[in-house]
Amino acid sequence: MDDLHLRERAVNIRESIIKMITAAKSGHPGGSLSGVEILVSLFFGGVMNYDPKNPQLETRDRFFLSKGHAAPLLYSTLAEAGYFDKSGLVTLRQLNSPFQGHPDMRKLPGIEASTGSLGQGLSISVGCALGLRLKGFNSHVFTLLGDGELEEGQIWEAAMAASHFKLDNLTAIVDRNKLQIDGFTEEVMSIEPLNEKWLSFGWNVVELNGHSFEELIPALQRAKGRSDKKPLVIIAHTIKGRGVSFMENVCDFHGKAPSEEQAKVAYSEIRECDVH
């Protein structure tokens, strides 16, 4: 898929994120918007093997959204990929809606695990990668982590296990937007030097611009089919609230919905967003 079509996918997903969170009057726009190019690269950049018409394809690649509060990002991407109709997205967080505030694997196709308790997604991914290896599949496991989530101890237990079991069929992606619910990560609980931390746990590390398809897609494609006996982490430097000026790098929009008037501004700005 060429750059123009990738950009169009990103625009569609960002618009859906704003639409569903505005309708719900609740949700997490900041961290959903920051991860858009990452998921567009995975699902539409020729990286992941998946089939929306056969969501349980045994040999499929797996994607786990560890930062489950960014559910609007996952829902919008799966709808864009054809797993289900987009019309249901506006029922986000409504009673009996399958589009819960955090992903529920029992309610929608394409969701590999119910997530939301931060820190657990990487452990789930390690278990999945081990299981795929035991079955002899060449499938790859990708998981998206929040940078504030890295303060959870379980992340580092999972990182140690992934290295110990030499899981080169596992790639973690850190959405390094530098903000969490209470403020900047480096003020709440410093996680730097992040590169060195992952290296010390036995992982290969790549750092890149998390809004650049030119950097993301080649790195993600190279992640698959490796045989270097090491898990890989991609530290993707992003901007929280990317594409909407009044949300960018604003902690308040970690978990606050825009008003109807703010949403109108957001739609106009999203169309002009430069993702490079």
From TrEMBL:
| Cofactors demanded by this protein | thiamine diphosphate
Listed GO molecular functions? Answer: metal ion binding; transferase activity
Q: Does the keyword DNA-binding apply?
A: no
Identify the residues that the record assigns to the Transketolase N-terminal domain, covering every copy: 12-264
Q: Which UniProt keywords apply?
A: Metal-binding, Thiamine pyrophosphate, Transferase
What's a Pfam family in this record?
Answer: Transketolase_N
The record's listing under Gene3D superfamilies reads: 3.40.50.970
Q: Which family does it belong to?
A: Belongs to the transketolase family.
Give the protein name, as stated in the record: Transketolase
